[in-house]
Amino acid sequence: MPGACPSRGMAGRTDVLLQMDELERGLLIQPWSWLQLSEDSLLAKACITTHKGYALLLSDLQHVWHEQVDTSVVSQRAKELNKRLTATPSAFLSHLRDLMCTLLEGPAAPGGAIFSCERMSERLTLRIRSELSGLPFHWNFQCALASPSLVSQHLLRPLMGMSLVLQCQVRELASLLRLKDAEIQDYQENGSVLSRDRLKTELFDENTFLEQVMTENLSEACSIENGRSFAMKLQNLYVAITKQEFQAERKRQGSGDSQASDRTSNETVDRLLNQPGHESSAPSQPVLETLNMESSVPLQRPHLSKVKRKKPKGLFS
């Protein structure tokens, strides 16, 4: 399946999911990461497996670019870019996975690799220069403009879902604060006295609160700049929304698949869906989960050590 994902026309949402292969499914439930490459700031998400190929999405908040290729394209491109290297497509994909995994984790370039972007008309090329088995390794991700349906899948629909979830959270918190006020009032009416005046609070007024939030935070909320805040702070919510939508559609279409290849693909995605949750301060975890979707056969490849991040402790934990 070389090149960009073709448009699916007017097919229903369920039909789209039925047609999705393993790479598309893995990419859908992958969160966005933020990249700073020289003068280019990009949002990125990727799904790489050694037995299927890879799918990649990049965006500068003006355009969205996409590339999805299978192992045959990887093999051909590797030969064109690396005359001195001879390896299987799985070995090249394994190395690409390691490089992209580390790149999406944080700002440091992985293992001395050099990344750069080149934009030409409606295309974007992400170039990589690194080493594989002691020899120079070059790769070009050749991305075309993503189709409107793909942009809707990965941005519009998840963002709408996230907005609704955040709105529900505000309503629930407002309800809880009103109950807390009623509880405090009951204590006071029964003779309880606050021991520390600095802890005294005013009665919660939802309308006043919402107006204050709008006044104080609207400017900052609208200054999305390069999308870094979205990628760093809302990964958990984005992943939860895309997983939920994916699972809901699978329930509607039924869990039984007659073809063995579909069953294998679904089992791989199920492993990804069933991964434990991750902390918002450790955005690398979902990246690792998706980029390390693998078959049971271990591969001999250069190992890039990954720093284990400590999970933050909450105020009341």
Descriptive overview:
There is one protein chain. 47% of the residues lie in helices and 18% in strands. The chain is built from 10 helices and 7 strands. It has helices at residues 13-19, 22-28, 71-81, 89-105, 148-189, 206-222, 228-233, 235-253, 260-273, 284-291, and strands spanning 33-37, 40-49, 53-59, 64-70, 114-120, 123-132, 135-145. A 7-stranded antiparallel β-sheet has the order 1-2-3-4-7-6-5. A hairpin with a 4-residue loop joins strand 3 and strand 4. Helix 1 packs across helix 8 (235-253) and helix 3 (71-81) crosses helix 4 (89-105). The longest helix is centred in the middle third of the chain and has 42 residues, at 148-189. The N and C termini lie far apart (48 Å). The model is unreliable at 1-19, 256-269, 271-284 and 286-317 (pLDDT under 50).
Proportion in helices: 40-55%
Alpha-beta classification:
alpha+beta
User: What is the β-strand count?
Assistant: 7
Provide the gyration radius in Å: 23 Å
What oligomeric assembly is this protein in? Answer: single chain
Task: Give the N-to-C terminal Cα separation.
Answer: 48 Å
Q: Spatial order of the strands in the main sheet?
A: 1-2-3-4-7-6-5
Main sheet characteristics:
7 strands, antiparallel
What integer is the average pLDDT? 76
Order of helices and strands: HHEEEEHHEEEHHHHHH
Shape: elongated
Count of separate DSSP helical elements: 10
